Amino acid sequence: MGIPLRTERLWLVPLDSAADAADVHVAFADPEVMMYWDEPPSRDVGETAGRLAGAVGDYWTVRDVDGGPVLGLIGIMGGVDIPGLQWILRRDVWGRGYAGEAAIAFVEYALGELGLERVEAWVDIANGRSIAVARRAGLTERGRLPQRYPHRDRPHETVVMGRARLAEPTVVLNVVVELPVRDVSGTSGLFENVFGCTVLFTEDDFAGLGIGAWSGGRRIHLVTDERPSPVRLSLETVTEFDAIHARAVAAGVQIGQYPVVQPWGRREFVIALPDGHEVTVSGPL
């Protein structure tokens, strides 16, 4: 069990899942508060109490130093490779900077007294409030993931925000795929039209393709080779799965495997490129 933490305006007090359930339920029952959560809103206090009792990790309630009901929760999700920072606040106290204040104190505690090497937060890319909270606590972007929660009507892109106890130099900044092809120009056009790649530069026997529109992102290099050896690529997408499949069919590209649902909870199909390469396209269910 952790210890209470004090900030300028807040007390962070270790959670009592039974005693605090009614107050916490105000947040857990609010659809707007739960918009980006990995579970739907709670239907009643009993369901909230069950969630709190079954949570894997250590959580603290967020309280005003002057007293009153619990304002929210902050804590560390366990059972994962890197402890996951989570927080939630009642909507009637949004906009006061409480989440950022609590996150700053808690991250310092987690990387200090708790002795954790790293903490990270998984945030929906559309959740600007939570991204700002993570940044206030010193977390920076470390990666991105496609996700789909069962109760939400569509997949979303998750930003992985993280912070280490000690400064960590980046050993490998990026990995660039190099694909040998007979026709650099033709293959470049295919990747542009089907996968939405951006042509960064091109020569007679070499081309650089960007995945996404931003500088410094993931890349694919195409290199001329009269006898290319087949390569297998995997391409993850968030919401463009069906659109990529439709564009591939419209372009007359051979489909090596039509869309299927895999046992690990993703959809996949395979595109067979002219040089014998295969691209497996996967996305959330």
Automatic annotation (TrEMBL):
Q: Where is the VOC domain?
A: 172-284
Where does the signal peptide begin and end? none
The residue ranges of the N-acetyltransferase domain are 8-166
PANTHER family in the cross-refs: GNAT FAMILY, PUTATIVE (AFU_ORTHOLOGUE AFUA_3G00765)-RELATED-RELATED, N-ACETYLTRANSFERASE DOMAIN-CONTAINING PROTEIN
Q: Which domain of life is it from?
A: Bacteria
Q: Which Pfam families does the record match to this protein?
A: Acetyltransf_3 (PF13302), Glyoxalase (PF00903)
This chain's protein is named GNAT family N-acetyltransferase
Origin organism of this chain?
A: Kibdelosporangium philippinense
Which InterPro entries does this UniProt record tie to the protein? Acyl_CoA_acyltransferase, Glyas_Bleomycin-R_OHBP_Dase, Glyas_Fos-R_dOase_dom, GNAT_dom, N-acetyltransferase, VOC_core
Output the SUPFAM superfamilies linked to this UniProt entry: Acyl-CoA N-acyltransferases (Nat), Glyoxalase/Bleomycin resistance protein/Dihydroxybiphenyl dioxygenase
